[in-house]
Design a protein that fits this description.
Layout: E1 5-9, H1 21-30, E2 35-42, H2 56-69, E3 75-83, H3 89-98, E4 103-107, H4 127-144, E5 149-150, H5 156-164, H6 174-186, E6 190-194, H7 196-199, H8 209-217, E7 223-226, H9 239-248, E8 253-258, E9 261-266
Parallel strand pairs: 1-2, 2-3, 3-4, 4-5, 5-6, 6-7
Antiparallel strand pairs: 8-9
Helix pairs in contact: 4-6
Bound molecules: zinc ion (2 copies).
Length: 278
C-alpha cells in the first residue's frame, strides 16, 4: 500500500499563493496523497521583523477545522516555511514559540542586504561565486538551528537557469558543500526534495541527484519531499518522481515529522510507501 506525503505547500495564508486550505486538502485526496503539511511563508523583510501579513491564528484555526473535515481521508499536520530566520531570529522564534508546529522548513530566499535571489543579475556573476555565496547563507541558516529541514537547498537554480542553463550545481563548490552538509547532518537536521523545479525552468528537482547522492554518502538520512505548490492543482506534483530519485541516490527511507520529531518511512520496492513504522 502506498504512502504519499507532500511536505511543502502554500495556501492563501501566503501572499504569493491562491488556494484555500480546504481546496488544497481536496486536491491531495483526489490524487491519493495520504499526508500533507501546509507550510505558509513567514517571511519578514528589513523593517518588518514581525511580518504581520502572516496570520498565524487564522492558519491554525483553518487547519484545525480541515483536520476534522478530512478525518480518515487525509492526515494533516501543521508547518511553516521560515524565510531567512538566521537574519530575523527574534520574529522567527516568537512564531515558533506561540504555536506547536509539527514541521519547520528554513529557507534562504534573500541575502542579508534584502535582495531576493530572484532579483540578482546572474549574467554578471560566475556559477562558482553564486554557489559559494548561497552556501554561505545556508551555513548561517544551519547555525540558527531551530528548524527541521532546509528548503530547496539550491534555490539559485530556479532563478539562474535562464542564464546558466543546466550548468549550475552546488557540487562546483565541492569542499564547501560537503562541509555545509556535514554540519547539517551533525545538527540532526535534514533537507527536502523540492519538486517545483520540475515544473519551472530548471526542469529538475531542488536539489538534484548529484547533491542528494553526496548528502546520502556523507550519512544524511533526514529527507522530506514537497511540491512547493502555490495552487491546489500543483499539490503532489513530482512526488512519485522524487521517490525514484531518492532511491537512485541511495535512500531507503523518507522522513515524516510529528511534533518536530522525525519518523522514517520505508520506500517500498513497488514505487510505493509502507507506513509500517508508524
Ligand atoms: Zn521557499
Ligand atoms: Zn515554499
Amino acid at each position: 500500500m502506498s504512502y504519499l506525503m507532500d511536505y511543502h505547500i502554500h495556501s492563501i495564508h501566503s501572499t504569493d499563493a491562491i488556494s484555500s486550505i480546504s481546496e488544497i486538502c481536496q486536491s491531495a485526496v483526489n490524487k491519493g496523497i495520504n499526508e500533507i503539511i501546509i507550510t505558509d511563508h513567514y517571511e519578514p523583510s528589513n523593517g518588518d521583523e514581525l511580518y504581520t501579513i502572516y496570520d498565524q491564528k487564522s492558519y491554525w484555526a483553518e487547519i484545525t477545522k480541515a483536520k476534522q473535515l478530512f478525518k480518515g481521508k487525509l492526515k494533516l499536520k501543521m508547518g511553516v516555511e521560515l524565510g531567512q530566520p538566521h537574519i530575523f531570529k527574534e520574529g522567527s522564534e516568537i512564531v515558533m514559540k506561540d504555536f506547536p508546529y509539527d514541521y519547520v522548513i528554513a529557507s534562504a530566499h534573500k541575502l542579508p542586504d534584502g535582495r531576493d535571489m530572484s532579483e540578482l543579475d546572474y549574467s554578471t556573476i560566475s556559477i562558482e561565486d553564486v554557489c559559494a555565496m548561497y552556501l554561505e547563507q545556508i551555513n548561517m541558516l544551519i547555525d540558527w538551528q531551530n528548524f527541521d529541514c532546509v528548503g530547496h537547498l539550491d534555490l539559485i537554480k530556479r532563478y539562474s537557469a535562464s542564464t546558466y542553463g543546466k550548468n549550475l550545481s552546488l557540487t562546483c563548490q565541492y569542499e564547501l558543500l560537503s562541509q555545509v552538509l556535514r554540519k547539517l547532518i551533525a545538527s540532526g537536521k535534514g533537507i527536502e526534495i523540492n519538486t517545483s523545479g520540475l515544473r519551472q525552468t530548471p526542469k529538475e528537482t531542488m536539489p538534484g541527484l548529484d547533491v542528494l547522492t553526496l548528502y546520502h554518502q556523507l550519512g544524511g538520512e533526514i529527507l522530506t519531499i514537497g511540491s512547493d505548490a502555490h495552487r491546489a492543482e500543483d499539490v503532489g506534483k513530482g512526488i512519485r518522481e522524487a521517490h525514484a530519485l531518492a532511491k537512485s541516490a541511495g535512500f531507503r527511507f523518507i522522513t515524516s515529522f510529528h511534533e518536530r520529531k522525525p519518523v522514517q518511512i520505508q520506500i517500498s520496492d513497488q514505487k510505493a510507501f509502507s507506513a509500517s513504522q508508524r
